[in-house]
Design goal:
By secondary structure, the protein is an alpha/beta fold. It contains 13 helices and seven strands. Helix 3 links the parallel strand 3 and strand 4. The longest helix has 28 residues.
Amino acid sequence: MQLGMIGLGRMGGNMTKRLAQHGHDMKTYDPGVESTASSIAELRDQLAAPRAFWLMVPSGSITEETFQALLGVAEPGDTIVDGGNSNFRDSQRRNAQAAEHSVHFVDVGVSGGIWGLEAGYCLMAGGDGEPVKRLEPVFTALAPDGGYAHVGPSGAGHFVKMIHNGIEYGLMQAYAEGFEVMRESEFGLDLHEIAGIWRYGSVVRSWLLDLLHAAFEEEGSELEKIAGYVEDSGEGRWTIAEAIAENVPVPVITAALFARFASRQDESFAAKVNAALRNQFGGHQVRESPK
């Protein structure tokens, strides 16, 4: 089928290639990359009605601006798919706004990263049954066998992807802490070797562990060239906010997010306060700041 892909970055570009490999007629728009269209309006004219537009742009203002631009050119019966990491509340709002124009909206959580072109993408779709069903040839081409589901109504796709990423935070942090304990041990352990053997038969084997083994392979067991600065793209924060709203304890995901915050501090002011207090009440020695 025909599809208009908007955004040809690492994810959108590879998804476009995978869909083309599966025989889909791909039209594209990205102002920073060679595309079939030079504007969203031209992209619309390159597609036969009812059209399907797929947004694969960063969440936030870019998604909102592009969605609004699409609403300005889309016609009744067209479908807008958001495959980025949007907040599910925004997706519910966009679905309601699209419905006012008789345009369908589908939110799709996408996982697979830079490996999806070859291995496929896990897809979690939210929205009404009719447009989701119509787009299934696209979803099944992008996903590996068993890697796609229509998980619920509007917002459900991005909600499930949000929780997926929150879990990812916790898993990554557990690996990070365990490998640091081994690195500091008395045994002189080969972390590359251990990551390697844990991939076979171990209950902690996973694709994340495969990727860690690959990182040690490329960068060395000390990861010398990699700064210990870890960003977050928002989904962990949203997961925790929803957990609070639902009165659900999520201590692991919360601790993992706070560990990312701590990674960005050259020197912790909270730690300075702790050191100063220990000195005041117990006379414990403090270290002088190098600054």
